[in-house]
Amino acid sequence: MIRSLPTAAATVLTVAVSAGAQPPSGNGDVAPAETGSKLAFQFAPGVWLPRLNGSAKLGPSAFADHVDFEYQFELDDMEPTLNGELLLTFGEDWQLFFSGFDFSTDNEGRFVGFSDFGSLRFFPGDRYRASFDTASYAVEGLLPIAEPVGSIIGPAAGENAALSFSALLGLRWLDVDQSVESLDFGGVEETGGEWLAGSLGMRVNLQYEPDPAWWIMKRLEIDVAAGAGPALDGSGTFWQIRGGMTAYVTEQIGFTLGYRLLEMDLSKDEYDLDGGMKGLFIAGTVRF
């Protein structure tokens, strides 16, 4: 027992010296932990290539019916439309998404079928001039739900992949202006409305980084989101889908190819809209 005391003392002394070499846990020389939230921006100015679909009706005539944008007003041409999208990321989880566009299309032709549109009455072959304009802006909060840990697509050693799911909660403002003119009998109807609608949905995001990086791509991101909700004044609903694939050629610069869809079933006074826009979306993407 007595002969083991020097060994025990030496052990205690060694532990004490080792403990003394570590930074104290309370105060003193400990470097404070980073508490600031990291803010990241992802900006995608692009061109949306939508076509108008659906129909619209304007009363009060008993003969008023939904007039088809594609077959009767022929307003379904592809219209290049500027569409900007901005994603703000706080830390590594919470995000805000902003988007906006201004769509416009018009046509002049001969009417197919019979219908009243407001005070205008159309018979087969009547000449008309029609236009449809929509401006819309949206903000969405993306709240993290789950982010699976580890490899989800079996990458090779050194590669990195991450999958995340987020709840979507947002607001969308819609402004619609529609004009129809009878070129044979005269008369113009200008109608439309403004709506503010809420939305609830989900977003799925997949990111993949090859190692070593491919010469044409350092990072690939696939993003899909969908949401729907009512107009806050109770005058209809809307739903939307956006999806896309972004290939980053550098850490900050990428190119996006995607798809955007917005469908509206809205009414205001005697105007009833059941239509929307859908088409490809092409953009350059910058992260900073």
Notable characteristics:
6% helix, ten-stranded antiparallel beta barrel, 62% strand, single chain, 288 residues, mainly beta, Lipocalin
CATH fold-level name = Lipocalin
Q: Output the helix-strand order.
A: HEEEEEEEEEEEEE
Q: How many separate domains?
A: 1
Number of strands: 13
Supply the CATH architecture: Beta Barrel
Question: Radius of gyration over alpha carbons?
Answer: 29 Å
Number of helices: 1
Mean of all residue-level pLDDT scores: 85
- Portion in beta strands: over 45%
Give the CATH class.
Answer: Mainly Beta
Helical fraction: under 10%
How does the overall form come out from the CA principal axes?
elongated
Largest sheet: 10 strands, antiparallel, barrel
Structural class: mainly beta
Which spans have pLDDT < 50 for at least 5 consecutive residues?
Answer: 1-36, 150-157
What topology does this entry show?
Elements: H1 5-21, E1 39-58, E2 67-68, E3 81-90, E4 94-110, E5 115-117, E6 120-122, E7 127-146, E8 160-182, E9 188-209, E10 219-230, E11 236-248, E12 253-268, E13 271-287
Antiparallel strand pairs: 1-2, 1-3, 1-13, 3-4, 4-7, 5-6, 7-8, 8-9, 9-10, 10-11, 11-12, 12-13
